[in-house]
């Protein structure tokens, strides 16, 4: 950030804080004490001050920064593990050539757009441009669809050489890649060609609403303004964890010709995050119809263990999506209510011992279906910890401590758990920032 802009931001922040002071003090039931808790009605994108729940729970900035560095080093530059499975290693980042790198899903031995998007975003948040560019080069040259109706979307997974395994699209990955590019544009400025981050982001984002102009299938459903599950085929339902309202405010600036659509997507995304979680437990399904009800295939029943309509790995991310929206753009009452409901449920399960897969009513999935290793999944621990950003619940700091006391993921499940763990550290420390140009989205 150049010096003049930094000064302007500092002045704006001071003004925003003064303007926000009375309402902050009077926020309904806002906990007394550390101002780092997320009850800021304005949010960090406008003020530059993001909630820091680690500080609120008593951890020093020095200790938190050390943990972030240690986690980055282990997941991006740790022991690669023994080929071919790498199951005994630490790193999930592999340099294929001097300017190409990928993140491997260790359990499946493939490369997924979701992980590439997470890793690109982590790299830009921590200021690691070389790794960012290597990841982006791989995504651009190996995964991005270059022709036809789905041009500029990304094939959802390849093998570790970059050979496409399926041309289906996973909208969470594409959205994270675009958000990371918009962030890189703001943090580092735009280069040319592949490195014109802002232009590359705009191209991807524009395609999400206009693939149909070229005979393709739009990524967002026209009626509900929500991302579909997997274009071009599975587009009659959504996935609540694909609703990323914080990013949609960024996208409205990054893709100005579609500003109206992104504003509708923001409202729709927040609505999905309110409607999908069970009102008693706060548990959301992995997949949902556009009205937020659990998606069920023919023959499925509410009490079976099917992935789509239960609280399993995809659904863990709903928790962070709601709380990042609050951290960036201000806490709304629905977010506090949601986080309180969720925390009350998990307090009842035991904060440091709950399992990782549930029916939406809070019944753990039956034996044999809760085989996630470790049973108290590190990725879910990280996502649950973000509820402290908006919760008023008495025990909210317990969830932050649970993440702090969780070791950095290694071994077989380190890809998904590791990415969510690293993101959780960034969210909870107030270091997951809106870097996009003109970051003060209104």
UniProtKB/TrEMBL annotation:
Keywords: Carbohydrate metabolism, Glycosidase, Hydrolase, Polysaccharide degradation, Signal, Xylan degradation
Xref: Pfam families: Glyco_hydro_8
Signal peptide residue numbers: 1-27
GO MF annotations in UniProt: hydrolase activity, hydrolyzing O-glycosyl compounds
Tree of life domain: Bacteria
InterPro entries the record matches: 6-hairpin_glycosidase_sf (IPR008928), 6hp_glycosidase-like_sf (IPR012341), Glyco_hydro_8 (IPR002037)
GO biological process: xylan catabolic process
Family designation: Belongs to the glycosyl hydrolase 8 (cellulase D) family.
Protein name listed in UniProt: Oligosaccharide reducing-end xylanase
Organism: Actinacidiphila guanduensis
Upper classification of the organism: Bacteria, Bacillati, Actinomycetota, Actinomycetes, Kitasatosporales
């Amino acid at each position: 950030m150049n010096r003049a802009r930094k000064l302007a931001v500092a002045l704006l922040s001071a003004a925003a804080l003064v303007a926000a002071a009375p309402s902050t003090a009077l926020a309904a039931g806002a906990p007394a004490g550390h101002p780092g808790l997320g009850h800021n009605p304005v949010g960090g994108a406008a003020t530059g001050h993001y909630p820091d729940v680690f500080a609120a729970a008593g951890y020093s900035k020095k200790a938190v920064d050390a943990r972030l560095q240690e986690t980055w080093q282990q997941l991006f530059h740790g022991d690669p593990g023994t080929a071919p499975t790498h199951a005994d290693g630490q790193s999930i980042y592999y340099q294929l050539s001097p300017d190409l790198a990928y993140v491997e899903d260790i359990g499946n031995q493939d490369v997924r757009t979701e992980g590439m998007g997470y890793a690109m975003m982590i790299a830009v948040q921590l200021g690691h441009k070389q790794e960012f560019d290597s990841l982006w080069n791989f995504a651009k040259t190996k995964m991005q669809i270059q022709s036809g109706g789905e041009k500029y979307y990304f094939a959802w997974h390849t093998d570790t050489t970059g050979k496409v395994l399926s041309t289906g699209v996973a909208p969470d990955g594409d959205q994270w890649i675009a958000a990371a590019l918009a962030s890189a544009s703001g943090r580092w400025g735009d280069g040319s060609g592949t490195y014109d981050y802002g232009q590359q982001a705009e191209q991807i984002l524009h395609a999400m609403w206009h693939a149909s102009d070229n005979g393709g299938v739009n990524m967002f459903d026209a009626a509900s303004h929500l991302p579909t599950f997997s274009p071009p085929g599975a587009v009659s339902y959504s996935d609540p964890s694909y609703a990323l309202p914080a990013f949609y405010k960024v996208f409205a600036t990054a893709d100005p010709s579609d500003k109206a659509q992104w504003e509708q997507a923001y409202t729709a995304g927040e609505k999905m995050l309110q409607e999908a979680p069970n009102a008693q437990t706060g548990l959301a399904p992995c997949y949902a119809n556009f009205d937020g009800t659990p998606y069920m295939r023919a023959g499925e029943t509410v009490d079976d263990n099917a992935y789509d309509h239960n609280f399993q790995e995809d659904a863990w991310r709903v928790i962070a999506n709601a709380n990042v929206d609050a951290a960036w753009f201000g806490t709304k009452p629905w977010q506090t209510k949601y986080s309180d409901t969720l925390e009350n449920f998990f307090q009842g399960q035991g904060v440091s011992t709950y399992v990782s897969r549930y029916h939406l009513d809070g019944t753990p999935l039956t034996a044999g279906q809760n085989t996630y290793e470790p049973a108290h999944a590190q990725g879910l621990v990280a996502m649950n910890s973000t509820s402290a950003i908006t919760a008023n619940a008495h025990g909210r700091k317990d969830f932050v401590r649970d993440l702090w006391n969780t070791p950095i993921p290694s071994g077989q499940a380190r890809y998904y758990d590791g990415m969510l763990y690293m993101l959780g550290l960034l969210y909870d420390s107030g270091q997951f920032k809106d870097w996009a140009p003109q970051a003060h989205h209104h």
